[in-house]
Amino acid sequence: MARMFLFLAFAALILMLAGVSGCASMNAEKNAPLIGERIDLDGVAVHVVTAGPRDSVKPPVVLIHGASVNLRDMKIALGDELSKDRFVIMVDRPGRGYSDRPDDGGYQLERQAALIKGAVDALGVKRPVVVGQSFGGSVALRYALEYQDEMSGLVVLAPVSHEWPGGVVWYNRAATMPVLGFFFRRLIIPAYGSVAAEGIVEASFAPNVMPVNYYEQAGVSLLFRAGDFKANATDIVHLKDEIRSQQHRYAELRLPVFIATGEADDAVSPDIHAKTLINEIDGAALTLFPETGHALHHAQSDAIIQLIDAIPLDGAPTE
Hints:
CATH superfamily: Alpha/Beta hydrolase fold, catalytic domain
Strand order of the largest sheet: 1-2-4-3-5-6-7-8
Strand content: 5-15%
Order of helices and strands: HEEEHEHEHEHHHHEHEHH
Structural class: alpha/beta
Mean pLDDT: 91
CATH architecture: 3-Layer(aba) Sandwich
Number of helices: 11
Largest sheet: 8 strands, mixed
Low-confidence stretches: none
Helix content: 40-55%
């Protein structure tokens, strides 16, 4: 009888978890539905949104978002404006938004870069400027390390480029733990995340102001789906090791590189990352934005578009 009671209690818990997690996913996807196409790459679907004229004389642009967000973040900040006069590809990184997560090392920067390159190739796009923010900057750097001869240029915004002291926040560790992580992602995150998220997101913009209706327009609630949260947490937990594997290679880069960061960025240290990176890439340029935080792609979007415009199709910086 006791075993039967435990079995029934466990079954009820599983059903409750499935219900809570399922409702959170349905609501998130209703509020932020699929807006692009899913490109199949050997069984892994990558969600991309394309916009703008394909016959533009300006090089196409690939936008890679950071952690805890999806492609809508880069679309709002840069994609909508850039696509007025050039072709733009916005991509959900593997496991994020509406992109699949591959079973074989989906957290690896090289694997993520390869999947994004596969989507670019599938669209028939040649010699893009690759732009990445924060974690997306890490992926963009790896993309350039692997494929620079097929690019016009690289722009990294508050990139995570070098090993840093310290670890990661506790809930990302918890979300990746065996067994505990399963329950945490399906019970705690759907309830806690929706309550705390807006304040956390607003703080990430400081000292700048979060755009009006950003939380809804950026589809931030997609993060609190169990699979998305696990992918995001796994990316973050493994990032330091991934950075260690590539930070010695930046001197290999020979293409036009623009680095930009906010001097008031409390999330990704300008001193550890951008100011170190500039000394390792011959000919790269660094732009420091005063009184600007981590979300510089929103706060300084016009200036960042000017940096992107400085890279012509042949990959040679303009004078």
